[in-house]
Amino acid sequence: MTQWDPNYFQKDEEKLKELGYKQQLVRNLGPIQNFGISFSIITVFVSVTTMFSYGLLAGGPATMTISWIVVSFFSCMVALSMAEIVSALPTSGGPYYWAATLAPPKVSRFNLFGLISSNTSLTYGLTQLISNAILVKTDYMVTKSQNIGLCAAILLSWAIMNTVGRPFLRYLLYYSILLNSVGLVVFAIAVLVKAPKYQSASFVFTRFFDFTGPTREDGWSTIASPAYVACIGAYMSLSSFYGYDGSAHLAEETLQAAWTVPVGIITSVVLSALLGFFLLVALLFSIQDTNLFDMLQYKNPVLYILVESFGKNGALALFSLPIMCSWYCGLYLTTSNSRLIWAFSRDHGLPYFFNKVNERFMSPMRAVGLSTCLSFLLCLSSLGSAVAFTAASSMAIMAVLLSYGIPIFLKLIGHGNFCLRKGPFQLGRASYAISFISIVWIMFSCVIVSLPTATPVTKQTLNYGPIGVSIIFILATGGWLLKAQRVFVGPVKNWTPMDISNYMGSAANKT
């Protein structure tokens, strides 16, 4: 690791200027805070808690544990590839800027749509966790209108904290890190200690379930094969490992970004993989009743496990931990989204109106507002609909993974040129191989999250994620052809306002 340079702030500004931008945001995040952004967004505490029932139904314990190990390994490969790129190009644009620098900018919109879909999926998931908790001691069912109101309140709280509460975000990161690490470990140990009995190791690592059909005889393992069920069962793990580009979107607010951001991305993925596996195994060992339909009486098997071991009051106390982690995840996902929107509008990929930084709070308030509004609009279509929620989740994973894959692919095919601009974090001779592995894994993952997860395939069980991503691609391409190519300047490369004005005029004359 390089020595900490006392002149890092000046060097960060010089590097940013070299990439074509001036310093506008407050650069005051250190290594822990930058790591905390991606770590809080990944938040395996939430993904395991919300997707546990899906994992049990689609493959059971064997698929859950094995897929976690496999997905963790390949996610680390992707994180390493991304870390090498961000070390050379440490700006708030993240994958958008990397793709726009290495290739034509029209391919770089997936990251924005993916992160907005992620926010929608997370908001829906948080409302479901709250609804599940209410059902533990009451029979009260939250209505759709109440769900929408709760969704709006949650999104508004994130928006307020990212605008007027901007000075406190870096301090709240410490609480988020503690909840997602120490809180998770305490949660898992408490579950293991209080469990009246334990399942065997063979149950945790080899037991296979298939409840993907109306009956056990009509599931995908019978219609297709157990391998198909294992693939779709990996959806739980895949839903955990994305969003770790959050550290990159905060690059312009991070000290010694060319080194700190790559380390933040890698450590967040590695630590999340280890903690998530520990939590997953602890819950599986502590299952008391292997009858899945009994476990689903609380709509969330994790709650069932907690109630069996701690009683209702103790279960609710522990269940509040993933609920709080979910809120922190949304808070910093909104931060990441707003920085992407702000950077994209800076290059006229979005209306320049959203590039404004509020001088009092040093926050891109307009970008925060747009991110919140778009997330709420998607929530209106998904709240109360399991089909729409699955589509939003699938869209989020595919779009984000594609946004990761595009710059990694461009780095791969232009490896010689990229080597000329490498930053301090380098993979050396392993760079090419790791990039290739990352691309293959991303392609495979996109196929997995495109598959139908339940049988028979009807309009209620069809996976609409690929359709949503296709629509996004068509709209993005159409927008590029109709307008964006005339106004989009890409990475500004130190252009002056006069340069941009001349470019606009020239592009308009061509049309």
TrEMBL record:
It comes from the Eukaryota. The keyword Transport applies. One of its GO terms (molecular function) is transmembrane transporter activity. It is a multi-pass membrane protein. The chain crosses the membrane at residues 35-57, 69-90, 110-135, 171-193, 226-244, 264-287, 367-389, 395-420, 432-452, 464-482. InterPro entries: AA/rel_permease1. Gene3D superfamilies: Amino acid/polyamine transporter I (1.20.1740.10). It is found in: Membrane. The keyword Transmembrane applies. Keywords: Membrane, Transmembrane, Transmembrane helix, Transport. GO terms for cellular component: membrane. Its main location: membrane. PANTHER family: AMINO-ACID PERMEASE BAT1 (PTHR45649), OS04G0435100 PROTEIN (PTHR45649:SF26). This is Uncharacterized protein.
